[in-house]
Design a protein that fits this description.
- By secondary structure, the protein is mainly α.
- The protein is built from four helices and no strands.
- It is globular and about 30 Å long.
Amino acid sequence: MNKAIAQLEKHLHLYMRSGGKTSRKRQAQKMRIVIGYMVEKEKVKGLEQIGRKQVSRFYRDNRHLAPSTRRDYYYAINVIWRQFLQRASEPPIFK
């Protein structure tokens, strides 16, 4: 298992313990897809290596998705960016 995926699972264990269970489960699945993409395509080895460039490439490669799906991915990336990586800035926006 890749270090980034292991780090994500550690954060998700705590994240999924509170809040609406079905919504958290759905959002956790989106986060796993995003990190899986970054591990495979961007060769990310840890969550700390995720930056604006990787997020923008994820958006670019998924332009074909419906607006509601893109919104869901943005929310998932926002949780990774703000809570897991503890960054003060906003993540890039899906355009």
